[in-house]
Specification:
The chain is mainly alpha-helical. It has helices at about 5-20, 25-30, 35-40, 50-60, 70-95, 105-120, 125. The protein has two domains: about 5-60, lambda repressor-like DNA-binding domains (434 Repressor (Amino-terminal Domain), Orthogonal Bundle), CATH 1.10.260; about 70-125, no CATH class. It is rod-shaped, with a radius of gyration of 24 Å.
Length: about 130
């Protein structure tokens, strides 16, 4: 299960317990079934966000999202992954022709390509 779903469920359940509210009472306040409330509180990842939001609202809580990774870091990671795939294709072709790159040359090609991809930005960075 994703850690965020488990953490969210645990936080909601902790709040429910602090309020001394039963699951059936929470279900009634949130307008969703007791079984679904229990799934939300267990942090099951297949529960609809609307249900999680309804439970949070009934508990006087607010859901929110916050970045786990900075935009720059995510862009760098994506550019590096894509550059590494492209360089690996070049390396494979070069090796077939007996002109394989050294590890240093390969790493330099990956770094240069990653910088170019990141500078170009846009959809090309995310397209496979």
């Amino acid at each position: 299960m994703p850690a965020t779903a488990i953490t969210t469920g645990a936080s909601l359940d902790e709040r429910r317990r602090e309020l001394r509210m039963t699951i059936p009472q929470l279900a009634q306040r949130s307008g969703i079934s007791t079984a679904t409330v229990a799934r939300v509180l267990r942090g099951e990842p297949t529960v609809a966000m609307g249900h999680v939001s309804a439970v949070a609202e009934a508990l006087g809580m607010q859901l929110g999202l916050r970045p786990r990774v900075s935009v720059d870091s995510l862009l760098r990671q994506a550019a590096h992954r894509k550059a590494k795939r492209a360089a690996a294709l070049v390396q494979a072709t070069s090796a077939l022709e007996g002109q394989g790159l050294s590890r240093h040359q390969f790493d330099a090609m990956v770094d240069r390509t990653a910088r170019e991809l990141q500078a170009a930005g846009g959809k090309t960075l995310w397209a496979d």
